[in-house]
Amino acid sequence: MAVTSSMAESSTAPRTDRRRVAAIDIGTNSIHLLIAEVDEALRSFSVLLAEKATTRLGERDPETGDLSPASIERAFRTLRHDKALAESHGVEQIVTAATSAVREAPNGRDFLQALDDQLGLTVDLVSGPEEARLIYLGVLSGMSFGEQPHLILDIGGGSTELVLGDGRDARALTSTRIGAVRLQREFCQQEPLPTERRRFLQAYIQGALDPAVAEVKRALQPGEQPRLVGTSGTAMAMASLAAAEDAKPPLKLQGYCLPRARLDQLVERLLAMTPEQRRGLSAINERRAEIIVPGALILQTAMDLLDCPELVVCDRALREGLIVDWMLRNQLLGDRFSFQRSIRERTVLHLAQSYSIDRERADRVAAYALSLYDQTRGMLHHDGGEGRALLWAAAQLHTCGKSINISAYHKHTWYLIRHGELLGYSQAEHLMVAAIARYHRRSLPKKRHESWQLIEEREQRRTVFSMALLLRLAAALDRRPARLIGALRVHQPDDGVLELELVPHAVEPGEPVPDLGLERWSLRSCAEVVAEASGLELRVREP
Length: 543
What we know:
Shape: elongated
Number of strands: 14
CATH superfamily of the largest domain: Hypothetical protein af1432
Number of domains: 3
Strand content: 15-25%
């Protein structure tokens, strides 16, 4: 499943080959609206619009537990707006989920009936495990699990979901009745929290989480080391606070890694602050600042109980899960988890499509690049295998900068890839794909280039350098719209020499064999760069 962001709303009329659907998540703290456009061919969706409103349904009557009239009014106002906005975008359906605040309130079902009667909005009241399942689907749509099991922690306003999954199945789906809004209301009347109150709250959180933690641990196989993924408001806020202090803050929080030691430092600082001081933090909004302390303590306690050294942030959660679930129910995904096996491929192709890249030519360049990769191991590169997928992605996207300007398009390509959304890739891998595409033409990497400075690890720079050289050679063969090359053959007749042979594409009997003189000339123009980058003399074998 690939998800790409697009802020272009110049046309609200959906394309005839796509379908639009909206998802509304009615949570304890906020109501989220997401409008998506589903591509049936790619079996993916792109986000057209995402909005959030803080409605605080969790601020219930302290005596009866009912949703308060003020919170109901805020919710009605928001949902009326969301429904009108979704309909203006031509969605065929609005899928919804109401979570812990509504399912626990005695008047929750009356609230949902009023929404149906007055707004014509039918809302599904989901259970805790169903909420966990939808969150799991949302995270699956935004991250590649590979072969490693993942623990997903979603700290909401009224409940905390903990999921164990491996990309093929959800092994454990748990929901616990602790959340940032609920704990703020019940335990944090005095701030900063007195030491004894803090210890009591931490013990309460641990006691509440213990059954869920025990359940997911039972589902782990011996020797498995799961990766912890944090979703939703608390995790995003803590990552935002940490990222704001980084020397090179990331453009996006998706995939951001927050080490446990860093989290502990942030929690201590937040605990020492007054509410006014927290509201002055520019990295988080004022409403989040009000409830960040109990949310941060849930996160810290969960990491301790799960013995996880770091948290990886995912900005996909329940609302994206509603879209995936809609696609499943409408037979747009044959296998619930099949998209995990191709999440990287789908997100790259979706981005390429958004920039109107010629798919046939991009496929050819990618095939040339991978053929060179396989045949030049030990000559042009010493990659252990991780660079191959990055090379393919860069080859598919290397011309996207032409959508801005043909001149120096490789620089525009770097910008577009870096600022685009590549799901399933880590932040470092995302930057590497952009840099490989950036250096497929013109100069080799230089220290002053921002695209090079952002690649911090030496091994990553080595991978970018060698993959970019392979892409340069592959792109040099893409001289005409028609396919004339059938195969590439690599020879090394002598030490220090790399010889490339171009095999013409097969033709029908009686047709002339294609003349590849233009492609051979183009390859020879790369000889100087190949010598500078690898020390090898590039030769092109004549027919």
